[in-house]
Amino acid sequence: MRTRPVSVMVGVLMLLAVTACSGSGEAEEPGGEGDPSPSAAPAVEITIAPEDGATGVATSGALAVSAEHGTLTEVKVTGPEGAEVPGELAEDGTGWQPEEHLANDTEYTVTAVGENAEGRAATAEAGFTTVPADATFTSNWNLSDGATVGVGMILSMTFDTPIEDTAAVRDAVSVTTESGTEVRGHWFGTQRLDFRPESYWEAGTEVDVRFRVRGVEGAPGVYGTLHEDLSFTIGRSQVTTVDAGAKTMKVVRDGETLRTIPVTTGAAATPTWNGRMVITEKHRETRMDGATVGFGGEYDIPDVPHAMRLSTSGTFIHGNYWAGGATFGSQNVSHGCIGLKDARGAGDSSTPGAWFYDNSIIGDVVEVINSDDDIIAPDNGINGWNMDWDEWGAGQ
After folding, report:
1. Ramachandran class of 323: left when φ > 0, alpha when ψ lies in -120 to 50, beta otherwise
2. What is the mean pLDDT of residues 135-145?
3. SS3 category, 50
4. How far is CA 181 from CA 167, 178, 202, 275, 352, in A?
5. What is the Cα–Cα distance from 47 to 79, expressed in whole angstroms?
6. pLDDT, tens digit, 9 for 90 and up, residues 262-305
7. Residue 16: pLDDT band by 50, 70, 90 thresholds?
8. Which residue of 83, 103, 174, 367 shows the fewest CB atoms closer than 10 Å?
9. Cα 379 to the chain's mean position, in Å?
């Protein structure tokens, strides 16, 4: 602690403030021997943990600032290039803690200011370095910043290494809306984490995501690096119901039926999954090779028009130019996909396949009913809507 010189003038005693530059600090008492009105309030004492010069500091749970005989008025924690760590001050003003994990192997500086009951201030400073990571894990997700998506969109994160502390990683991601819609995370295994609300999103909802995985110890010695924000918007509500028994598809947007279209779905030996599925990819044209999904050489079509993915296992809703026109609405002949009449080359905008493609966005819902198959697994695509809300996120 350093103390500035005290100047004495005739009839006047002027005391200067004391600044503490270690892990704690307190203000100098104005009273002294012969002072006719000594202060009744003790000086505020500020304590910073970890202590000044500490190394190998944990990225979570180690940093805290507290005050005795007074309250904290300002706490500033800065890392490289002056980046500030957000924190939360206790209601009574006597404590402060960071709101997120610190980065690994990083130098931080803490400056804390407090005052006692009479408003006399003290300042404390400390610096420390966090623990290096033995290894790191990367995080990827399925949404781009600023995207407009359908009401069925689910935020899905994947990790390049198994996560052991799934609760810590889940809690490091926040998904919020202005309306306060509750959003829960659910782990599928140890390398995939999905987020959704209880029901489909409301059209027009603005969603904000804060990834604060950096510094989270997902497994012993293995830390995350992701520290990013993004937002996305829910567009109009479009939910399409495919009735495999009736071989029809009804497209409903914002509560109104736009169109009912004849379709073909999976044949008896290769039925289409039942359940609610979400469009995750759109391809004006794409190749479909049966060998990639377990059907050997049964088909290999290089130019399937207007294809939109519904499952990881290969379910698409797409245009079909190779089946006769009478097939749609009367026969189920596919290998599990949902087929709409279309033209080769994807150049005829008047076909049902082209119309549905042009009127669909990523995140729209396609629900299949009355098919002779099970309900699709919730992790086959981003199809978590097929899991009850009570089960979603339970115990993780």
Report:
1. beta
2. 97
3. coil
4. 21, 8, 9, 24, 36
5. 19
6. 999 999 999 999 999 999 999 999 998 878 778 877 778 999 99
7. very low
8. 83
9. 17
**Separation between Cα atoms, residue 378 and residue 311, nearest integer Å:** 10
Instruction: Report how far residue 77's alpha carbon sits from residue 98's, in angstroms, rounded to the nearest whole number.
Output: 9
Task: Retrieve residue 327's tokens.
Answer: 């097939």
- 3-class DSSP state of 324: coil
Nearest partner of 102 among 193, 210, 221, 224, judged by Cα: 224
Q: How many residues does the chain have?
A: 396
Helix/strand/coil (H, E, C) string of 221-262? CEEECCEEEEEEEECCCEEEEEECCCCEEEEEECCEEEEEEE
CA angle 343, 349, 350 (to 5 degrees): 85
In terms of Cβ atoms closer than 10 Å to its own Cβ (0-12, 13-18, 19+), residue 283 is middle
Which sign, positive or negative, has the C-alpha torsion 79, 120, 27, 43? negative
Q: What is the pTM of this model?
A: 0.86
Closest CA to 360 of 205, 204, 149: 149
Tokens of 172: 């490091």
Question: How many whole angstroms from its chain centre is CA 131?
Answer: 25
Measured CA to CA, the distance from residue 335 to residue 333 in angstroms comes to: 7
